[in-house]
Amino acid sequence: MSFYAIPEYIRNKVEQGKQFANFGLLFQKFYPYDGAPDYEKIPHTGSVKRLVQKYRAEFNLIAHKQKQQKDFLENRVHLASKDSILALSAKLTSRLVTGIGEVSPSEVGMVFDRNSGLPYIPAASIKGAVRMAYTINFARKNPDKVSGGTIDENDVDGLKELFGSLDTANASRGGFVFMDSYSVDIPQVVADVMTPHFSNYYGGKNPYPVETESPVPIQFLAVEKGLEFAFRGFFINDDAKKYAPQLMEAFNTALTELGLGAKTATGYGRFTAPSDVSEDIWLKVEQDKLRADERRRKEAEAKAEAKRIAEKKRRRSRK
């Protein structure tokens, strides 16, 4: 039997509610516990399935997030130039897990947008994966730079310009800003499962893994595959812009080979090759400019006509 460790008047609302618009808030604050009320161990895996049944995502929230980012990039184009932005689109070919290390009663966490409750991919996670992919691509093209299976980051052209450096003696800010990634359509959250076979060994109770241990199924939340995500960012200086083609290649490697989020070693977080949709934003900006020019032209014509009519009336009044 499950219960909610919250005041009764709130618990009644949670238990009666079939679905929640902000699922992230439900997952983080109103998780149902199973078993003894002393919170000794992980809640029963059935709690995850019951939680998924309360999941609901509003499309207008997704559309709002997408519009916010598009509007921002359009402003960047207005203020800078069309080559100052990068907008990509890719679909999940496997399930996605993000924030698996987040503190959660289910032991396995997941990250949700605080205000909308939508699952998303944080910009920092994308930057880390793309940075790794950028280094890998450079090493593949320049094997002479690799020694003992490693490469000095100072030898990687464009790495510092794009991603910055944490070197205390020569720290710098990266010239490309990554944005959080949100799905284009309503994301489907599902209950997935992992089965650790050597829990006592990993927990430090046994010095060695032994086959006599029973697997312990642990359920966790994941985003179902097939969902399209938008990946966006912008350049803040010309030094970084020079490496735009290499950055695009790094995005491709990160999404198709390395994966994003958690459990990438077991195939999670893989995407299709990204499509560059930056031109859609450029065209939108150009169309807005044309409409604005046309509006100003009509306003100028209207003012000129009004002035002409006023002058004509003034002349008549003098006669």
UniProtKB/TrEMBL annotation:
<keyword id="KW-0051">Antiviral defense</keyword>
<dbReference type="Pfam" id="PF03787">
    <property type="entry name" value="RAMPs"/>
</dbReference>
<feature type="compositionally biased region" description="Basic and acidic residues">
    <location>
        <begin position="293"/>
        <end position="309"/>
    </location>
</feature>
<feature type="domain" description="CRISPR type III-associated protein">
    <location>
        <begin position="91"/>
        <end position="271"/>
    </location>
</feature>
<feature type="compositionally biased region" description="Basic residues">
    <location>
        <begin position="310"/>
        <end position="319"/>
    </location>
</feature>
<dbReference type="InterPro" id="IPR010172">
    <property type="entry name" value="CRISPR-assoc_prot_TM1791"/>
</dbReference>
<feature type="region of interest" description="Disordered">
    <location>
        <begin position="293"/>
        <end position="319"/>
    </location>
</feature>
<protein>
    <submittedName>
        <fullName>CRISPR/Cas system-associated RAMP superfamily protein Cmr6</fullName>
    </submittedName>
</protein>
<dbReference type="GO" id="GO:0051607">
    <property type="term" value="P:defense response to virus"/>
</dbReference>
<dbReference type="InterPro" id="IPR005537">
    <property type="entry name" value="RAMP_III_fam"/>
</dbReference>
